[in-house]
Amino acid sequence: MKKLLFSLLLLPVFCFPALAQTQVVPIEVDIAKQRSPLKPIWAWFGYDEPNYTYMKDGRKLLSELSALSPVPVYVRAHNLMNTGDGAAALKWGSTNMYTEDKDGNPVYSWTIVDSIFDTYIQRKMKPLAQIGFMPEALSTNPTPYRHYWKPGINYKEICTGWAYPPKDYNKWAELIYQWVRHCVDRYGKEEVESWYWELWNEADGYYLMVEDKIGTYCKMYDYAADAVKRALPTAKMGGPHATGGAGEFMRKFIAHCLNEKNAATGKTGAPFDFLAFHAKGWPTFTNNRVRMGMSNQLKDVNRHLKIISSFPELKNIPIIIGESDPEGCAACGMKTDPQNAYRNGTMYSSYTAASLARIMDLDESYGTNIIGAVNWSFEFENQPWFYGFRDLATNGVDKPVLNVFRMLGMMSGNRVSVSGDLPYDAKSILESGVRGTATDVNALASTDKKATAVMLWNYHDDDILEGEALVELSLKNIPAKKVKVFHYRIDQDHSNSYEVWKKMGSPESPTPKQYAVLEKAGQLEMLTKPAGQKVVNGELKLSVRLPRQAVSLLKVVYE
Q1: HSE-up of 509 (CA within 13 Å, CB side)?
Q2: Is residue 150 part of a domain?
Q3: In CA terms, which of 69, 203, 255, 559 is 20 to 30 Å from 62?
């Protein structure tokens, strides 16, 4: 039966008379038309709750993320400097790295933060080490210090004592200096040189509780950057991790670092080795279904790239999209926020594939240098199954979106041009999203000496499953006479633990046998068995039926 299915998938269009209403999309991938190297900007992940890192499911997921990537994965976590006992909670974490004795003298403790970084290093991952947030003993407004936020509560409620600037900049800078020196002593100079150090998070918004946000942030940055560079002159330091709409905050930060007086050194300017901003979509819940807002995310990217590229002296500076997501609150489940109901199924998968490719296109159009797009999704320990958090796995079982990253991990070499009569591109989605009658059927392609990989998606902003596409894929100038085709798929029936869980009756506590089934369903699945194909005059033609919100990876290995 599977052989028959694969044969049907490779038949030309006229063999499917019932598909007259199906969207037919010719796509051409010409291996002779290679672009720049395919940068693994997807190999970056982040989350609010750092103490999940060394917990059972956290360790399991980090191992999987490391295994799926051919390059070291970078990990960004909030709350690394918070005061507390290390207990994990939604949008909270702590390491207790800084307290003071009764005389006001610093007391440093690296035990918990070492447990976090050790977990990364053991898996050959790299920290995107966040200098944040403010220890209780250094906060200008320490009471109340910890929040107890839950989904459904006003988001502003999280901004307690940790979100204020230091009352003593010299003590704060010394803490940063001691932390970096400790990391060098523990992990080695060469290892720490490969990390990125950053200051704070979204200081233009809720996360810095002062009136003069840009002035305060720049002062904090001067002290932090000086401390990092004194501890390790070759360390990579940057910021400002502004929100997507904070283009002027980014512009003023750059201007300060280039031309203004440094509050810590008294000299002109401050060192920065990379720039970082955030980009978020805007889903809504209307007509009893989710409508995504990819346009908003691309507008955020476009806004910041335009500003950064306006500074000629910043040509080729590394850029990190510190949070790159369909919306803004990972811990807001779909029960309290119904617009987040896209997260468990294939809509999150197709959105991720389509948006990453368009971010690459915008980066190329500006001639900028995005090196990372942090997917702000991890896991939430001891929470209900498929609660609707923005996470990659639930209770140790991978969700469909994680398999997009497995697909991306199988792509390498140079990016290859994709052409055809395609209804959407980065510019059109930026302007108006994917709201028309046609779905966004497109591809991201790469090639190296051994294989060509083509990722296909069928995406639309509206969460409707009707709308299959038939992709007529032509691969030209293949440097082999015979190939083997591997076809991986994410759809309702493949690589989809959520659909399997629902068919089980949505158990709140799956049995060990059910868990094993769900765990297997969370892995990337082949649509068909690998099949040998002949290449005729350097060309290979394939017809692929692609359901709406599905993603396929075709890996063509040369024989």
Answers
A1: 1
A2: no
A3: 203
